[in-house]
Amino acid sequence: KAGVTQTPRYLIKTRGQQVTLSCSPISGHRSVSWYQQTPGQGLQFLFEYFSETQRNKGNFPGRFSGRQFSNSRSEMNVSTLELGDSALYLCASSSRGTANTEAFFGQGTRLTVV
Amino acid sequence: AQRVTQPEKLLSVFKGAPVELKCNYSYSGSPELFWYVQYSRQRLQLLLRHISRESIKGFTADLNKGETSFHLKKPFAQEEDSAMYYCALDDSGGGADGLTFGKGTHLIIQP
């Protein structure tokens, strides 16, 4: 079956702009999580959505938001971009809520803020 | 708050030598521990989890609750093992905190 798909793969934005990233999970997976990966901080949890509800949020400012649609696809939005938001944003899907909590990752969206 | 520590940013060993990637965690409950691996130009993928107690690609990891460790071991390293390895912790209660990752260890297997 198809893996987790993230679009776009690369983005360049200027400070102050906003950006929307998209994630299509594996078919049948209802949980989608987002992570930010940077060389200095590593992988940091942003938030998780399950059945269109945000279940938890990591320690990120309110500029970072997301949503999940009825087909489990998820979007992540970052407003008022800062240079420090440059990172690889990873999406993962899982069938959380069952015994199998393996997370399957997408290839990520590389965001560069200039 | 839960925390995962991987003390080595870089580990270089020769082919055929034993490998041990260290992982320590802090968590008050009963965690579920994972090792994820990222090969060059590939996506992050699950290598193994403690609950399944299996060996994948020759790697094993034992959860030591007394030492709060989940070290990854392989008796004989192969060149194709070169990759970034991440230890991760999940709230086994099915909580929604997401995975907490260590900062990763870059394993290089020299020929």
Quick rundown:
The complex is a heterodimer of chains A (114) and B (111). Chain A is mostly beta strands and 114 residues long. Chain A is built from no helices and eleven strands.
Order of helices and strands of chain A: EEEEEEEEEEE
Helix content of chain A: under 10%
**Separation of termini of chain B?**
41 Å
**Secondary structure: number of strands of chain A:** 11
Q: What's the SSE pattern of chain B? A: EEEEEEEEEEE
Q: What's the shape of chain B?
A: globular
First-last Cα distance of chain A: 37 Å
Major beta sheet summary of chain B = 6 strands, mixed
Supply the key terms.
heterodimer; A: 114 residues; mainly beta; seven-stranded mixed β-sheet; four-stranded antiparallel β-sheet; 11 strands; globular; B: 111 residues; six-stranded mixed β-sheet; three-stranded antiparallel β-sheet; 0% helix
Folded structure, characterized:
The complex is a heterodimer of chains A (114) and B (111). Chain A is an all-beta fold and 114 residues long. Chain A starts with a strand and ends with a strand. In chain A, strand 7 and strand 8 form a beta hairpin. Chain A has strands spanning 5-7, 10-13, 19-24, 31-38, 42-50, 53-57, 64-68, 74-78, 87-94, 104-105, 109-113. The mean pLDDT of chain A is 92. The radius of gyration of chain A is 13 Å and the shape is globular. In chain A, the strands form 2 sheets. In chain A, strands 2, 4, 5, 6, 9, 10 and 11 form a 7-stranded mixed beta sheet that branches. In chain A, strands 1-3-8-7 form a 4-stranded antiparallel beta sheet, with no helix packed on it. With 111 residues, chain B is mostly beta strands. Chain B contains no helices and 11 strands. Chain B has strands spanning 3-5, 10-14, 19-21, 24-26, 31-38, 45-49, 60-61, 72-74, 83-91, 100-101, 105-110. In chain B, strands 2, 5, 6, 9, 10 and 11 form a 6-stranded mixed beta sheet that branches. Chain B has a 3-stranded antiparallel beta sheet with strand order 3-8-7, with no helix packed on it. The radius of gyration of chain B is 13 Å and the shape is globular. Chains A and B meet through strand 5 and strand 10 of A and strand 6 and strand 10 of B.
